[in-house]
Design a protein that fits this description.
Length: 164
Amino acid sequence: MPMKSMSNREVFASIIGAFFATLCASFFSNSILEADNMPMILASTGASAMLIFGIPHSPVSQPWPLVGGHLISAFIGISAYSLIPNPILASSVAIGVAMLLMHSTGCMHPPGGATVVTAVIGGANVHELGYYFIIIPVFFNAIILLSIAMAVATFREKNPFVID
């Protein structure tokens, strides 16, 4: 099945949306967490932004996969870190379990792979959060991206001032 092409209006709105979404998520995470390891925490957020704004019609770019995929991945990653002392083994097990759960719940979102690995190898800033990592930054970043993506979708469809 070919990927649905985007009009010039959709591409422009998506680029602007991705910029503002990642800016807001980065600002939020930095303000709340004051994390020294910001790029590691936001790697999956950037990957999600590329998907939901770059190919918004894809099944992996829909609201449930975006939010559910990240939440499942964060939970599995934190759990694996807590239960398996070897980070390489913990990351590998976590990837497989997260993939299985995303498939079984219908929320496959590939950037969840970065979330699950970040939960395992993200360092002291992530590990100190424990299961709070699921809420801050993962859940809030997903909601920020989703909110801006929904606004962009409305703009892409209805703004008469953008010419294709």
